[in-house]
Specification:
alpha/beta, about 1050 residues
């Protein structure tokens, strides 16, 4: 059936900002869909609020709207663009829910727009827990014993029937949000209350507990002629009870018999047909009782999902692209399989002859108060994937990809601790982010597999595999590396042991292990991912390393450059860096240079097989990168676009004479080494805050007297402000050095004077070594001291004078010249009393690069990449001119709702998972749209609660009249209330939490407060007021924790939402 002729324009709804439960896999699927439909001649309109994505690049769609994903916003775009159809299956739960809202509000009918890919009925049947349960029963497919609740009374009735433990799952939420496992009535009521609040339909499914059952997923594609295929099966190593996004998963499933697989396959097809998914990709989740083989279906997603991205990368089958084409009428047999060069149709089920392992990445270190036990609500912030010839190789490669200083199954228990056995038992019984390492430590301690199975319910097959790894380790511990025979050495590599791990076990350096391995002629081979288990030849160069077979790499003799990716998504290093790597690859190809991409993140566009000429899905470690360089012999390597990950390899590469393109490695060291950086600042006659580098606690205490409190403290060489804190006195400094970090000669700690009330400014520079351009000057909305990744920022600056901006530009250019920057550089400045201070210099891509690129209409990375290969900025006609009369505001999106025990306060350590962009004719309009995009609704009046630290009280003179003019009455705590009263304004005094009842939290929980302005400092004060911020988060009350943020809110309230501007990037630039 050929493509539909009744559709000419399609609106694709994106997923919005990166959040826990909905990450950059939807950038990958959305980008594929945009590209596929545009190539087919459709006019593609995109709405997405996330500026950090490739999907929102103006080249991907015909009209790109970076706007809040809300049905009212989307209606405005529909009115303007008049699309024929909406494709809602590429933007996760956000897009599905928005499409349902458009249908419910009558927008689709009013404008004559149809849904393609999945209709309203199919979405409802899959996402509405009650409808799904009834539908499954109608086709004789078992579901867990369950009940539906729309109120707490309903929930309690269901619980009585089902008993404890039970699993609570809200309808229409993502990543298990609001759900959990309840073992008692108190837990049950708490989870249900949260779940009912978060479900858009106020609906819960309460299931009998399947904890300990095995969990599987089937990735399925169906077309309009009812052709159905399985892309791959996925098995969770962790049994039921841990959200699949937080579980280690393996593809294809390892412990299913052929008969069980066929039963699951047939059930998946039956479910798709009955739900009514006419075209596209879906994900079906099953549970199997290991005691008797009973199978039940848990849920299905009528859209591409996190697992779709994993299945796509695991098999090479482009699910999102195929799903997009099926939605416009094509059938599977009409579409060619790109990866086999069209030798097979898309209706051939992929077949793979290797094992794929995914390991999730967590960020609990950012939220020390959070509960790190894994349950049915997803908590991971990213993931890695690895491929190998067997499970053990795949698993150990995935561990090495994690960027957690792991080189294999490292031991993580302290055997000197007399309670270590209790610790292992706890960690196996109550899964946390490192459970797999406690399993291997238990095996090292001689625990039986039966004992481990009883505590974890991890299948014996996996335990056997792990036991063999530990046995092999014990056979070489303490051996002389040169005495290991070639056969044994080769077996170590076949089993996935990294050179670094072999070195650790044999007390050798990684460098020595590599030399001996190569002298024995044990070198990796590279296999191709081809969807057909090598049955057909493939021209697509998508590869992974293994040992002991025929190498299929076949490198070319063309001029080639390798781009090192950014590894797993995490807080501090997110999708922005993947955006940069993709643009670098595309820029090289434009210049006729072969691009080689290396990365290990299955969620991203950079690991799409058709983005680069050659893709290696490998850990970004010295061993793997050098192995690829050995076979490819590139003309250069780009390391400045993947964040800190590839920069760590700078010395290793330069020591071996490998050409690093762009800024010299020495310049990186000059900017990151504290003493050399101070020399640079003095040479250029610039100013930086008083600071010191200390190597022990005594030095720190002495230095603090000279610098003066407050002080920002942090370990050297960090990304995302990890372990960074603001301390106000000796006691807090001593506590930080004792508890937060290790301080030593090899691990110095940096102390910087904190500039109170300073405005922080980010500047991105692009240079070809001669011509230097300021890409953009971004003024932070929150004052200095809030991590730049968590602060909102405005382009152009909204309150900095022209004179200060010019001086900042001059200083940035001077630094760029001195470091001889070729490519990108980011500088953070602080402005206080008209004085400009240098905070830090990063001679690499920063997280603001995509945001600035979207605003100016030119890719900074493209310009930088071409500069690295000798094309001047003048030849490229690069311009960083901003559109007239527009403001662009970037706002951070924070995951505090996933960690209810954490204090939702901003500070020097980065905690945001993603970002949104607001575009408006004034700063206030752009800021208001950014807040809406971040799913934060600024109230239009009511009662404002104000409690500010003493240093911020002087700002109340200007702030209070603005609050009153915005239709708010004011309540405030003691000192703040007295100050406001003395200004002559009406204010009602309210108790602090420790001053007696009723207090601020009572008022918040009673929904008597509409806006919270709460600033505080000092460890004790922050702890005392944390319940206010936590209650505001729970009650969804808009809360700002900085005084400058409060002024921005007042600016936003001056704008009228009905008058907001909606203009595509293509119109703007």
């Amino acid at each position: 059936m050929p493509r539909r002729k009744d559709i000419s324009s399609i609106l694709i709804i994106g997923a919005g900002p990166i959040i826990i439960g909905q990450a950059c896999e939807f950038d990958y699927s959305g980008a594929q869909a945009c590209k596929a439909l545009k190539e087919e001649g459709f006019r593609v309109i995109l709405v997405n609020s996330n500026p950090a994505t490739i999907m929102t690049d103006p080249l991907m769609a015909d009209a790109t709207y970076i706007e809040p994903i809300h049905w009212k916003t989307v209606e405005k775009i529909i009115e303007k663009e008049k699309p024929d159809a909406i494709l809602p299956t590429m933007g996760g739960q956000t897009a599905l829910n928005t499409a349902l809202s458009l249908a419910r509000e009558g927008v689709l009918e009013k404008h004559g727009v149809i849904l393609i890919g999945a209709n309203k009925e199919a979405i409802d049947k899959a996402e509405d827990r009650e409808l799904f349960d009834k539908t499954m029963k109608s086709i004789n497919i078992e579901t867990p014993n369950s009940g539906i609740a729309h109120s707490m009374n309903d929930a309690l009735e269901v619980q009585k029937r089902i008993g404890f433990p039970c699993i609570i799952r809200p309808s229409f939420t993502m990543g298990g949000t609001g759900g959990g496992i309840a073992y008692n009535i108190k837990e049950f009521e708490k989870i249900c209350e949260k779940g009912l609040e978060l479900s858009p339909t106020t609906e819960l499914l309460i299931d009998e507990s399947l904890i300990g059952w095995k969990e599987y997923e089937m990735e399925v594609v169906r077309d309009c002629n009812d052709n159905c295929i399985i892309i791959c099966s996925i098995e969770n190593l962790d049994p039921m009870g841990v959200h699949t996004g937080d579980s280690i998963t393996i593809a294809p499933a390892q412990t299913l018999t052929d008969k069980e697989y066929q039963i699951m396959r047939n059930a998946s097809f039956k479910i798709l047909r009955e739900i009514g998914v006419e075209t596209g990709g879906s994900n079906v989740q099953f549970a199997v009782n290991p005691e008797n083989g009973k199978m039940v279906v848990i849920e299905m997603n009528p859209r591409v999902s996190r697992s779709s991205a994993l299945a796509s990368k695991a098999t090479g089958f482009p699910i999102a692209k195929v799903a997009a084409l099926l939605s416009v009428g094509y059938t599977l047999d009409e579409l060619k399989n790109d990866i086999t060069g069209g030798l097979t149709p898309a209706s051939f089920e992929p077949s793979i002859d290797y094992i794929v392992t995914k390991i999730p990445k967590f960020a609990f270190e950012k939220f020390p108060q959070a509960n790190s036990r894994l349950t049915t609500q997803m908590k991971s912030v990213g993931e890695v994937m690895a491929m190998g010839g067997n499970f053990q190789e795949s698993m150990q490669k995935a561990i090495c990809s994690m960027e957690e200083d792991l080189n294999g199954f490292n031991s993580i228990i302290d055997i000197e601790d007399p309670n270590f056995e209790d610790e292992i038992k706890y960690q196996l019984s109550f899964p946390g982010p490192s459970r797999i390492f406690y399993v291997t430590d238990a095996l090292r301690r001689g625990w039986s597999k039966d004992k481990i199975y009883q505590l974890t319910k991890i299948d014996y097959w996996f335990l056997d595999q792990l036991e063999e790894i530990i046995q092999i380790e014990s056979s070489i511990i303490g051996k002389d590396i040169s005495e290991i025979k070639k056969d044994n050495f080769l077996n170590l590599k076949i089993k996935g042991f990294s050179d670094s791990r072999i070195g650790s076990l044999t007390n050798s350096s990684e460098k020595k292990v590599r030399e001996i391995r190569k002298s024995l002629d044990i070198i990796p081979i590279f296999k191709r991912v081809d969807t057909c288990a090598a049955e057909f030849e493939t021209s697509t160069c998508y590869m992974y390393s293994s040992y002991g077979d025929v190498c299929e790499s076949k490198p070319s003799n063309k001029k080639k450059i390798m781009v090192l990716g950014s590894g797993p998504n995490r807080i501090g290093q997110g999708i922005e860096f993947d955006y940069c790597c993709v643009h670098a690859s595309l820029a090289l190809q434009e210049e006729g240079i072969e691009s080689i991409m290396v990365n290990c993140n299955p969620e991203t566009v950079s690991t799409d097989f058709d983005v680069s000429d050659r893709l290696y899905f490998e850990p970004i470690t010295a061993e793997k990168i050098l192995d690829i360089i050995d076979i490819e012999d590139p003309d250069g390597v780009i390391i400045q676009f993947g964040g800190q990950t590839p920069l760590k390899l700078a010395d290793t590469l330069s020591e071996r004479g490998i050409k690093i393109l762009g800024t010299d490695v020495d310049a990186i060291d000059r900017s990151e080494d504290r003493e050399r950086f101070q020399d640079l600042i003095e040479k250029l006659d610039l100013t930086q805050p008083n600071n010191a580098t200390v190597k022990n606690k005594l030095e720190a205490m002495e230095a603090s007297k000279k610098i003066g409190f407050p002080i920002v403290v942090r370990p050297s060489y960090v990304l995302g402000g990890r372990a960074m804190q603001l301390v106000h006195n000796d006691k807090e400094l001593d506590s930080y050095l004792s508890d937060a970090v290790e301080v030593s000669n090899s691990k110095p700690v940096l102390l910087d004077r904190y500039l109170t009330d300073a405005i922080e400014v980010d500047v991105d520079v692009v240079s070809d070594g001669k011509n230097i351009e300021i890409g953009g000057i971004l003024q932070h909305i929150e004052q200095a001291g809030i991590h730049s990744g968590d602060s909102g920022c405005s382009l152009p600056p909204y309150s900095l004078s022209e004179e200060v901006q010019n001086r900042i530009s001059e200083q940035a250019i001077d630094i760029s010249k001195e470091l001889n920057i070729i490519g990108l550089m980011n500088i953070q400045f602080a402005v206080k009393d008209n004085e400009i201070y240098i905070i830090e210099v990063n001679p690499r891509a920063s997280r603001t690069v995509p945001f600035i690129s979207k605003a100016i209409g030119h890719s900074l990375v493209k310009a930088a990449s071409k500069a690295m290969i000798g094309h001047s900025l003048k030849d490229q006609k690069f311009s960083s001119k901003l559109p007239n009369d527009l403001f662009f505001v970037k706002e951070a999106v924070l995951p505090f709702d996933k960690f209810p025990l954490a204090d939702p306060i901003l500070g020097p350590e980065m905690k945001s998972t993603g970002e949104v962009m607001g575009i408006g004719r004034s700063f206030g309009e752009a800021y208001a749209k950014a807040q809406k995009g971040a799913n934060k609704n600024i109230p239009l009046g009511g009662q404002a609660f104000i409690s500010v630290k003493d240093a911020d009280k002087k700002y109340l003179d200007d702030l209070v009249p603005l609050v009153i003019d915005s239709n708010f009455s004011i309540v405030a705590t003691g000192g703040t209330a007295d100050y406001i009263k003395n200004l002559g304004y009406e204010v009602k005094k309210i108790n602090k939490v420790n001053e007696g009842r009723p207090h601020t939290v009572d008022s918040l929980l009673n929904n008597e407060i509409d806006l919270v302005i709460n600033t505080t400092e000092g460890k004790q004060s922050i702890e005392d007021s944390s319940s206010i911020r936590q209650s505001a988060l729970r009650s969804k009350t808009f809360c700002t924790t900085t005084i400058f943020g409060a002024f921005a809110v007042m600016e936003a309230l001056k704008t009228d939402q009905e008058d907001w501007l909606y203009r595509s990037l293509q119109e703007i630039n």
